[in-house]
Amino acid sequence: MKIIRSIKEMQQTMKQLRSSGKTIGFVPTMGYLHEGHLKLMNEARKNNEIVVASIFVNPLQFGPNEDFESYPRDIERDEALAKQAGVDYIFYPDVKEMYPTELSTEVHVKKRVDVLCGKSRQGHFDGVATVLLKLFNIVMPDRAYFGLKDAQQVAVVDGLIKDYNIPVELVPVETVREEDGLAKSSRNVYLTEQERKEAPELYKSLQKAVEKITAGETDLEKIKSEIIDDITRKTSGKIDYVEIYSYPQLEPIAKPHGKMIIAIAVKFGKARLIDNVIFTV
C-alpha cells in the first residue's frame, strides 16, 4: 500500500493505472476509520482491481459551531486498518494541497439538503459536493462507495454525479449494524450503559413502520406518530426528527409510493444517533 500526498502524483498514478485497463474503486473518508469505512473498502476490493481511499478532513463542510480542529485524526491507525482491508493507495493531502488559494467558483447544492440533518447544517453539503468534485477529478475512479447510514449524503452525491455527468458509478453500501440492530457509529461510545440498552429500539421502530406500510397502511402521519410514541416510551432519548420522504429525491410524499426513506435522529445525552430504512412499495 502506498500513501500519496500530492495531487499531481495522484493524478499521474491513476492515469497510468487507467491506461493499463485497471478498474479503480474509491472510498472517500475523513479518516479515523471504523467498521463502516472498512465495509466500504471491502466492497470496493470485491469489484475493482485497484482500491483507493482518501483521508482528508475537509474544512469546507464544517459549520461555525463545529470544531474542525478537534476532529479526531490518527493516520497511523488509519493506515494499518486500510492496509488490512486491502487498500492499494491512500490519498492523504493537507489543506494547502487541496485548497492552495481561495476558490474562484462555488458549488451550491440546491435540492435534497433542506431536510433531515442538512436542515440544521447550512452549507455543509456545499462543502461535501466541492471536495467530492475535486476528489473525483483527482482519483478518476470507476466506482465510488458511500455508506447508506448517511442516506442524505448518498442522495446528494447521486445528484452531483448526474448533474455534472461525472463518469463514476455510485455504489451505496448497507449500514453496518451491531447484533441487536443498532447502527454502528463512533458516537456509540458516548452512550451510557442504560442508553446503550435502549438504543436498539430506534431500528426496531423503523422495522415496525416498514412492516405496517408494506402490509397496506397508507397514513404516513400515523406511522410517524407511532415511531415517536415507540421511541418516547421505550427510551430516554430526545427525538430530533422522524421523517418520511421519497428517495433519493428527499421530497415530501402524501402516500406510500415507489422508493422511500424513513429517517430518524435521536439525542441520548452526549450522543446524537441517526438511522434510516430505505425500501420500495
From TrEMBL:
One Gene Ontology term of the biological-process aspect is: pantothenate biosynthetic process
What EC class is this? ligase
Q: Which domain of life is it from?
A: Bacteria
Q: According to its record, what are the GO cellular component terms?
A: cytosol
Pathway this chain belongs to: Cofactor biosynthesis; (R)-pantothenate biosynthesis; (R)-pantothenate from (R)-pantoate and beta-alanine: step 1/1
| This protein's UniProt keywords | ATP-binding, Cytoplasm, Ligase, Nucleotide-binding, Pantothenate biosynthesis
Kindly provide the name given to this protein in its UniProt entry. Pantothenate synthetase
Q: What species is this protein from?
A: Calidifontibacillus erzurumensis
